[in-house]
């Protein structure tokens, strides 16, 4: 049926309008493009239909292709369909009360946000981590996103498809086929939740489809036991003699970490001589970029003296692990840190054997050991400062692993009769 009237679907709303028109910019063959003109606050952009006609076939008054054109019915029906789609998009954007431009309307018409895939949002997220040089997070989260894509077996999977039922099957897959621990499963869910929140913020998915929360998928970390050395065990490590040069070095690094409230290994090996002045250590944490200033304990002085002969200048690293790193390459810095940690843990196992310690001795246990010895003797607010925790709640939860006096006393009161 021939459309003999003007397109009644033209809409003007909220200073926006969408209309069919013939753009007066011919191609090389002298044909003019049939377009949808999108105007917002006097700024226009054009959505091309891919169809061109001679100027004589365009009815400017009724905004239709004249009947004299051999394909007028098909072209007018096409224009009507495109116009209806564009107007539907405009009405949706308007109902959401979003501040949008003509370019936004065009983009939403050509590439609807609802069609944006999980992978597209994930790729953008990973690119952002890489650009910001958060390489450790980039590597781990890339692997976790890879689990999702392998399970879905569909690069175009949308957020609406990643619902509660999908996630429950995915969790079973991670535990059963991938043999991941409960902690690793939770970490993967956290990445999915992060991407879901991004998608909601960007208008890709509505919050009503959010699969996390009460009566849905709840993210709860499993309780883990944090084991630290006792005061006596650390004294045994301090007293070790007949150590090789490498064992002595690793003990120095571990004790340096412990003496300074369990500094993370990446921060320890990045300390420079210039970071020490006025009897204090001043450094920026790699995890959250916080600036810290700690008094140098007396026990740290002999460790520093051990490395003074290898000092090239004030800006040199105290410990040797980062001296040959390409500091302009975040990848190389991360690789050197991982290699150093692996080496440290290997030699710490030997030190534990020599000190007759049956606990697994690693670099990270230095932090647990500080918490274990601190116990309930140091106020939580002070421990928060020493641990460099942003929230006191984090400190309370961390220190709860090492505070047993109340439960021990309660047990004794019941059974000692």
UniProtKB/TrEMBL annotation:
GO molecular function (one): DNA binding
Annotated Tyr recombinase domain residues: 224-412
Classification via Gene3D superfamilies: 1.10.150.130, Intergrase catalytic core
Keyword list, A-Z: DNA integration, DNA recombination, DNA-binding
Native source organism of the sequence: Flagellimonas pacifica
Pfam families registered for this protein in UniProt: Arm-DNA-bind_5, Phage_int_SAM_5, Phage_integrase
Name used for this protein in its record: Site-specific recombinase XerD
DNA-binding keyword on record: yes
Database matches in PANTHER family: PHAGE INTEGRASE-RELATED, PROPHAGE INTEGRASE INTD-RELATED
SUPFAM superfamilies: DNA breaking-rejoining enzymes (SSF56349)
Keyword Metal-binding assigned: no
């Amino acid at each position: 049926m021939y459309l003999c009237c003007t397109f009644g679907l033209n809409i003007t709303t909220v200073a926006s309008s969408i209309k069919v028109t013939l753009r007066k910019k011919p191609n090389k063959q002298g044909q003019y493009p049939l377009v949808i003109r999108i105007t917002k606050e006097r700024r226009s952009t054009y959505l091309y239909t891919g169809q061109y006609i001679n100027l004589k076939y365009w009815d400017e008054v009724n905004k239709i292709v004249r009947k004299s054109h051999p394909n007028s019915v098909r072209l007018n029906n096409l224009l009507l369909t495109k116009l209806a789609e564009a107007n539907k998009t405009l009405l949706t954007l308007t109902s959401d009360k979003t501040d949008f431009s003509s370019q936004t309307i065009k983009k939403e018409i050509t590439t609807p946000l609802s069609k944006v895939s999980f992978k597209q949002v994930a790729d953008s997220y990973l690119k952002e981590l890489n650009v910001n040089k958060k390489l450790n997070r980039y590597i781990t989260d890339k692997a976790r996103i890879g689990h999702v894509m392998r399970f879905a077996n569909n690069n175009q999977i949308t957020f609406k498809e990643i619902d509660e039922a999908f996630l429950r099957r995915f969790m079973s897959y991670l535990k059963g086929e991938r043999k991941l621990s409960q902690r690793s499963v939770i970490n993967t869910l956290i990445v999915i939740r992060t991407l879901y929140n991004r998608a909601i913020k960007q208008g890709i998915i509505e919050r009503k489809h959010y699969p996390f929360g009460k009566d849905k998928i709840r993210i709860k970390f499993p309780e883990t036991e944090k084991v630290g050395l006792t005061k006596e065990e650390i004294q045994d490590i301090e007293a070790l003699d007949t150590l090789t040069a490498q064992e002595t070095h690793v003990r120095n690094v571990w004790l340096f970490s412990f003496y300074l409230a369990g500094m993370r290994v990446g921060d320890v090996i990045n300390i420079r001589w210039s970071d020490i002045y006025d009897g204090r250590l001043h450094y920026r944490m790699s995890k959250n970029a916080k600036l810290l200033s700690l008094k140098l304990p007396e026990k740290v002085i002999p460790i520093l003296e051990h490395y003074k002969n290898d000092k090239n200048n004030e800006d040199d690293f105290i410990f040797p692990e980062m001296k040959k790193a390409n500091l302009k390459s975040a990848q190389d810095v991360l690789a050197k840190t991982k290699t150093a940690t692996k080496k440290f843990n290997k030699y710490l196992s030997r030190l534990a054997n020599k000190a007759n310690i049956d606990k697994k001795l690693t670099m990270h246990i230095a932090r647990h050991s500080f918490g274990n010895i601190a116990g309930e003797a140091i106020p939580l607010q002070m421990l928060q400062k020493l641990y460099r925790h942003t929230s006191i709640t984090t400190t309370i939860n961390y220190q709860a692993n090492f505070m047993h006096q109340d439960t021990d006393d309660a047990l004794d009161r019941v059974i000692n009769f």
